[in-house]
Write a structure and sequence with these properties.
11 strands, two-stranded antiparallel sheet, 24% strand, alpha+beta, 6 helices, Lipocalin
Length: 296
């Protein structure tokens, strides 16, 4: 009887241990390491026309900056080799992601992301370190920290140098904060962005990209960049447009028959409901003469 009771007690303890383990939440990290090719399903499209700020929650300060944009600014020698900001690196894939693991504790210390174009390299710290003070150095890649929320890698980036949201002059300030989410579904990596900029945006700007696992990509080459004199201009000249003098701002709206108000952007233009307003504006612009008569 004593042996039987001992077995019963042992069995009860084993069952208790098993049920306790079942109640422990599963740590559902999904490895995002590897080489990834962009599926290029850009919400904004490949083109970023001059004067088109639609779908962006910009304020008047952002519009003023963007209206002064002159594309030949990028031909200045000091601008030619400047990389994209961290919130634009997804536009110029493919990318390579790898882990840095502590050799003693085997704990994940950081993720590294390398973009093929211009070899833009960023580090996402996973060891719980805090972000630097506000006045610390700001860089193109910023300072990123991450944590796993189930199977989602959540990343927060601060200390970014001023850059653009679109390559048509729409600015993003150095005071912005970037929030990212990485989720892997099999061989597809979803990469979502939320830019919160108190200087140029009236509310956060959200977009996303998709990448496919592609381990067969060739090795990433070293990307040399040597600035040259592309355009001969007097010393000290910086291409720009003064307020109200940019002749190209209406070109996009005229090309597609859109009311000028649409391309000026604003938070309202981000949402599907704006199409109802757009339809009414187009109908009003068409006038009675161009409407199809429904009466005899």
């Amino acid at each position: 009887m004593r042996n039987i009771n001992g077995l019963q007690i042992a069995g009860s303890l084993a069952f208790l241990a098993a049920t306790t383990l079942l109640n422990v939440p599963v740590f559902a990290q999904t490895d995002i390491s590897g080489e990834w090719a962009s599926l290029r399903n850009f919400e904004e499209g490949v083109e970023e026309p001059i004067g088109d700020y639609s779908g962006l929650p910009v304020n008047d300060a952002a519009r003023l900056r963007a209206d002064s944009w002159e594309a030949s600014l990028l031909t200045l020698p000091e601008r030619q080799c400047a990389p994209h900001g961290v919130d634009r690196t997804d536009n110029v894939g493919p990318i390579r992601i790898w882990k840095d693991v502590d050799p003693d504790t085997l704990q994940l210390k950081s993720y590294h992301l390398l973009v093929a174009w211009m070899n833009m390299h960023r580090v996402i710290y996973m060891d719980g370190r805090p972000h630097p003070p506000e006045n610390a150095l700001h860089t193109f890649m910023g300072f990123s920290t991450g944590k796993w929320d189930g199977n989602t890698l959540s990343v927060t980036t601060t200390h970014m140098r001023e850059q653009w949201l679109r390559r048509n002059g729409v600015p993003r300030s150095e005071k912005a904060t970037l929030h990212e989410r990485f989720v892997r579904h099999g061989n597809v990596l979803s990469w979502a962005f939320l830019v919160d900029d108190p200087v140029y945006l009236t509310e956060p700007y959200v977009r996303s990209r998709q990448f496919k696992f592609d381990p067969g990509q060739p090795n990433f080459p070293y990307y040399p960049c040597d600035p040259v004199e592309e355009v001969v201009r007097p010393a000290g000249v910086v291409p720009h447009h003064l307020p109200g003098t940019n002749p190209d701002l209406a070109e996009y709206a005229n090309q597609y028959g859109l009311p000028p108000e649409v391309e000026r952007g604003g938070a309202e233009t981000m949402y599907p409901e704006y199409k109802l307003k757009l339809d009414k504006m187009i109908e009003k612009a068409a006038g009675p003469a161009n409407k199809s008569s429904t009466t005899k």
